[in-house]
Amino acid sequence: MLLLAVETATEQGSVALWEEGYVVGELSLALPGAYLRHLLPAVDTLLTEAGRHLSQVRAVAVSQGPGNFTGLRIGMATVQALAFALQVPGVPVSTLEVIAARLPLRSEPVGVLVDAKRGEVYFGLFRCEGVTPLPLGEAERLPVRQLAARLHPPMVLTGPGLTVCEEVLKPLLPSGVAFAPPELRFPQAATLARLAWQRLSRGAGVSPAALFPTYLRPAL
After folding, report:
1. % of the chain residues with pLDDT over 70
2. Which of 73, 79, 102, 164 is the most buried (most CB within 10 A)?
3. Are 125 and 148 in contact (CB under 8 A)?
4. How far apart are CA 193 and CA 205, in angstroms?
5. How far apart (Å, rounded) are the C-alpha atoms in residues 47 and 24?
6. What is the pLDDT of residue 148?
7. How far apart are CA 179 and CA 201, in angstroms?
8. pLDDT at 26
């Protein structure tokens, strides 16, 4: 079964194809204005390069947020339209979980930060001892300066929000809180596809009408 994954929750987006447990292909969308102008052409290019056709897609996964408002709206609307047109299920996955899944097989918890603007971050904490993150509580929105009180070593921090607030956080953190390297801090469509595939295997796909983004704050 062919699954299309659309990741547009942060400024570094991507699209990927997943089939029978493997990534068939992935394309980056890390360009200014890329989602509005290039998302659907990127999907078409990805399918062509993989030797597949849109009619072969049997499920569509989307990064649900929290994240960039514009990116989430474009990604969700695109996936809804494709799912309706193809009459296939949608699979929403938390953006924080997608980011955490890039740091598997770790003994310490993984904290994920996504920039929420106005000096705030979206924060989620996960156990990543396996390849699938397990949430340790609900995602929340916090002022950056209140975040340090929630972080107890040992822990690894990751996410694009870490890049934004790294200099503010460093002097506030206790020893034993490590930072993931910059290239691992953004979500990837291939990782989203893997997590969505696991959900589909459990029958967790939803109708296109049931696809909604997670914002955690009113639109700015």
Report:
1. 98
2. 79
3. no
4. 13
5. 9
6. 86
7. 33
8. 97
CB-CB contact of 91 with 205 (8 Å): yes
Could you give the CA distance from residue 6 to residue 37 in angstroms, rounded to a whole number? Answer: 14
The tens digit of pLDDT for each residue in 61-79 reads 999 999 999 999 999 999 9
Q: Which two tokens stand for residue 92?
A: 């929403």
Strands of 118-200, DSSP E: 120-127, 134-135, 140-143, 155-158, 177-179
User: For residue 32, what pLDDT band results from cuts at 50, 70 and 90?
Assistant: low
Angle, in degrees to the nearest 10, between helices 34-49 and 69-86? 40
> What is the pairing mode between strands 134-135 and 140-143?
unpaired
- Which domains does the chain carry? 2-94+187-210 (3.30.420.40), 96-184 (3.30.420.40)
pTM for this model (two decimals): 0.95
